[in-house]
Amino acid sequence: MRTWVVLAAVLAVAAAAAADALRGGLRDRDVKAAAPSAERRIVPPGMPAGSMGTVFYSDPTDGCRLRTLELAGFTDDRPPAYSSCRFSLSPDGRVAAPGGSVWSPLGGVVAVPRDDGFALETAAGQPIVVRGRAPAFKPDGTLTQEHDGRLVEWTINCRRGQRLFTLPGDNATARCVRTLYPHPVQTVAWFTDSRFAAVLPTRELVIVEDGEVLVRAQLPRYRRAFLQLSPKRRYATLWLDGVLAGTFDAGGGPAPIAPVGGTVTSLAWSPSERWVVAATSEGSVYLLRPDTGDARVRHLAISARDLAWR
Q: SS3 sequence, 197-255?
């Protein structure tokens, strides 16, 4: 196991210098809203209409009702009829769930947090209340969770005599519980079916491959931590108490995101992972290319509390 200096630097949010590096040296007064002609130039010439996909956002000026971004190159799909400042969107963009919910990459199943654990909800029947926390899905759709102080998966590879169960909408597939990591976790994000990032109760962030800790970094004090993944699972975003703390890849290296003005409280990657849209605590929204620096940051003429990109 190695403690990688790069990851430690990315997550050193307690220091003002690290905060500037993560959230930017620009201030709101330095970033002017782009004129319509400048906004149109965000999308390269010749790109087909709608090629940028759809950006969904909760509009704080309208009771946090979900809306979609109206901008050249984007698809203005009808958003789900949902009003909440924090939301979680299904992979197809048709259904919204409460903020902090985790969707299966295969669609149709969502893990919704509750005070006593979480609920697995599907369109097939009544929710199943599960004891435990930190639900997450592997790329192949396997559910994992923290249960009795360890990270487990709901697998179909069961030994004779193990207790079996089935899930609604799962074609009566028999499953059992198998331990993946014998320690408690607070939040988990799977890069691959064998590699995950997790935040531990000891205020550490780890990257683990097949049970072996590859990367370990100490975190500052926080009350609540949450990990999110980019669409292709190349990057994980760490949130501490609802504020961006860092974005890193499966090896612990930093994602090349340009700074924006203000404290970032929501961030969504485009399906291609070539673009990012970010919202700040002041409600400002920025669209940027992660690898091109400040020159491609655009301050959009909308206000948002939460974001999703499909």
A: EEEECCCEEEEEECCEEEEEEECCCCCCEEEEECCCCCEEEEEECCEEEEEEECCCCEC
